[in-house]
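haha ok so turns out i had the wrong file open the whole time. this is the CORRECT one, sorry everyone. sequence first:
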Amino acid sequence: MVISLADELSCHEVRELNDDVYHYDSMVGFDCTEQDGSWTAVRAYQDESSVGQVLQDWQSQLDDDFNALVGKNWFALGSPQHLAEIERLLELPAAHGTAVPSPVPLTRQQEALRACTVGVVSIVRNIIFETPDPDMADSYESVFPGSLAESEEAATELDATSIRSEADFEYAITDVGPEIKSFCATTIE
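then structure:
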């Protein structure tokens, strides 16, 4: 549903996301950018509780010009006009606005998985941008053994020559997100 929706929207540019490396749950999604620079984000998670957990970080940015459209295990963020287009394409009643579901608290295992994943992503970022932070890397390695090797492997998988900005990195890192989460799931057991 998610990627086919990207094909149906009138986007100037679509950037696919293969995971959410800042959340424990698996995700697919995309960002749709318009000619005027406005954008719409669509995210679909495996676990329904992820929607409220992720949207809590967006709550303060929602207003009359930037709304949320919330489904069972997915959401979209963008202008009311863009969200109305999604509602039309998905044959949904008008439901976009500024209300988001209350988050379900993360379990200890979910918190640990997120912490490990964020740590590996931080180390990969430092490798790609050649800004080493040995103390941070050693700290994560002491808590999540093998995170340095996993970070080096993930950085090798990314095409560093095509990553010229933080935005490029944020999209590219989602390609290795599932592998990083798999490593972290094994490490925190």
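The chain has a mean pLDDT of 95.
again sry for the mixup
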